[in-house]
TrEMBL record:
It is found in: Cell outer membrane. Residues 1-26 form the signal peptide. SUPFAM superfamilies: Porins. The lineage of its organism: Bacteria, Pseudomonadati, Pseudomonadota, Alphaproteobacteria, Maricaulales. GO terms for cellular component: cell outer membrane. Its main location: membrane. Residues 47-152 form the TonB-dependent receptor plug domain. Keywords: Cell outer membrane, Ion transport, Iron, Iron transport, Membrane, Receptor, Signal, TonB box, Transmembrane, Transmembrane beta strand, Transport. One of its GO terms (biological process) is iron ion transport. Belongs to the TonB-dependent receptor family. It is a multi-pass membrane protein. A motif (TonB C-terminal box) lies at residues 798-815. Residues 279-772 form the TonB-dependent receptor-like beta-barrel domain. This is TonB-dependent receptor.
Amino acid sequence: MNKYRLLGASALSVMLASSLPSFAQAQDTGPILDEIIVTAQSRAKGLQDVPISVAAVDANTIEKTGIVKIEDLTTLVPNFTYAETGITTAFLIRGIGSGVNQGFEQSVGVYVDGVHYPRGQQVRAPFLDLERVEVLRGPQSILFGKNSVAGAINVTTAKPTDYFQGSVFGSYEIEDSETVLEGMLSGPMSDRVRARVAGRYRDADGFQINQTLNRDEVAREELTIRGTVEVDLTEDLMATFKAEVTSFDAIGRNIEVENATPVNNPSSPFNGLTYPQILVGVFGQDASVLDFTQDGNRHSNGDNSFNDMETYQMTLDWALGDHTLQAITAYETLTYNEQCDCDFTGANIFLARLQEDYTQFSQEIRLTSPERDDFDYIVGAFYQSSDHTYQDQIVVESNSILIPAVNGRSPGAGSLLSGTQAFRQAQVDSTVLSAFAQVDWHLRDDLTLQLGARVTNEDKDGVRNLDVTTDSFGALPAAQIGAPLVYANVFGIASSNLDGLAGLGVPGAAGLVAAFGSGTVPTQNRNVTKFSPDVKLVWDVSDEALLYASWARGFKSGGFDFRANNRGQSASTAEAFQFGDEEATNYEVGGKFKLGRAIELNATAFFTEFDNLQISIFDGILGFNVGNAASSEVKGLELDGRWAVSNNIRLSGGAALTDFEFTDFQNGQCYGTQARDGSDDRFDPTTGFCDYSGLKNNLVSDFTGNVTVDWNAMVFDGYELTGLTTLLYKSSYNASQTQDPAGVQDGYVKIDARLGFGPQDGPWEIAVLGKNLTDEILKTYNGDTPLGGSTFGANSNYTFYSQGRTVAVQGSLKF
């Protein structure tokens, strides 16, 4: 199949469209679907009138299904995937997302009230008091500010009302001991001023047991407060001020270590032993480390993540005759501090500390014309400046078993590591300036040509340094001056100290610098200008049918590699520090249909080519291989629809067929147990890498689908039962970026259900919400256990596992 075969997919749409008038005449009575309004193209339009593959979730559905964060959308939106990894967050649309690196921009753009949230960590923040969430699939390069090469998530918060209202909500989940409290007040403060304030607090004990520390994990505490004020400055000018403060903290990680493979090396002192047997039997670590099976228990010396976000926004909406001028000014900050027991075991090996500080100022201005008979348009400009600093420390404490382990191979070398750390610092300053326009040219009453373009200039300055210091950030004492040599040999870390030792002629230092590169990277600059076009042809076949075909190109800007420990495949660390732009070309045909007043059906066929994919894959030691190393093709079919079966029953659902293939990816990282003796033709002995060409990306399922039944029934005079059940099916996928068979997750079915009771249209409700009633424990991310294979020769995997069945009791009051 190639891109031209997409034209065949439109044949069914044309036949269906031609049959609609007679069907509509037969369905002009009975139940009616409520219209869903979206702003996917910066105008408020009905979902059925927007020529984009978009899934919309309104406030009522968000409340009933218990959606509290972006991750929860995966149940309702086919072709959308979310996973937390060891150090970042991965979320994908149509199989494309960003790799594991703090230097990456996000391939899926997230926008809240028109403001770009660029950092993956921001996506972990909880939802609060929303009007709707839209998931737009495919490149969204024109009307969304930056880097939405795979798609966009458009979040709209609830606005102040011109009448007084309020609500309180409480929930308690039994298994996780999770408590959620929410409150909202909204109403007029004067004839010209309206305000809304909302808050949310969540506290949860966790669903796994850390046997090393004898506590439940992942424990979470979250608090979000938002205030919004609308002011009618004149009859034609309204200002909206919004401030939001969020903190979300986590203690622990939902990781289990498994698949321990015995050492197969007769010359190794550990031959025949598995990793847990080595850690406990040889090095005397805690007995909890022996648990290398998936059983809901983990062992770790402690992980935590403390995150704080602030957003301040002013939006001006000015009616200029029949045009509208909108200006969005925003300032946002993100700070997080994490400690990761990143050997992922309860043994004392090493730990990592990470800190990120991000500040961003953005300004967008757009002019929107009225919708006219001949043509209408949107034009605008966008500016963004940001400062991004990141640092981490790889710490070897004095009780680390690495010290005796390394001493066993090289007497005295391990002792050089005691109480030291590899300290990385990186900073990127960025400025973005772009102009955009979208014109709808109405060729006929029923035919529109939509032309869009965005020109973007981005300037980035980046610098990074990597030193070996004491664990209190001091200079190494004379007795440990050789520690950088050990960091290079054990961790593959090229530090700036290593350059100094080579300059002093210390034996072995020059060879290590030649092998791994320098730890000092001079300040570098990237300045690129890109043109992103978009063309759509939209045919309004009738009031009940719309067909469209589109072609679009988008890009995700390149940047600087924060996480590299050495030069990798590049000639130098300076060269390895920078990676280039990722580009996408998308072809799409689709149709949106109304079958009478009670049924809506949408279909989209797509073909997307990605070039210079930005990849970042863990190397099994402590580093990541980063660069523009791959190209891919993704093609598929997406369906969604709604049906008002009766006045009391609604059906909705969606499905996606996705065919993802790396067309060129020859330098993928091999997984730990991958055969290197010539029996596996994907392994290249000349490079030491594995060829992923012909394979699909991790976390990508060939098929996903969901069905939701929403119903209500009168049970007493004035009282009703409400119910909602969602069934999700997802075919198998591989959770491992290295294509390790141990990362394969079989296909599964999940069922969520809610039952509520209260007065019909009344002020209160009590409900029971069950999630994942089939109790599926799923692999969401998988990799080789750090240092297990590289240092001890004993391979195993760490795996993130999802939460099982939960049941919550809820109560709400609205006034």
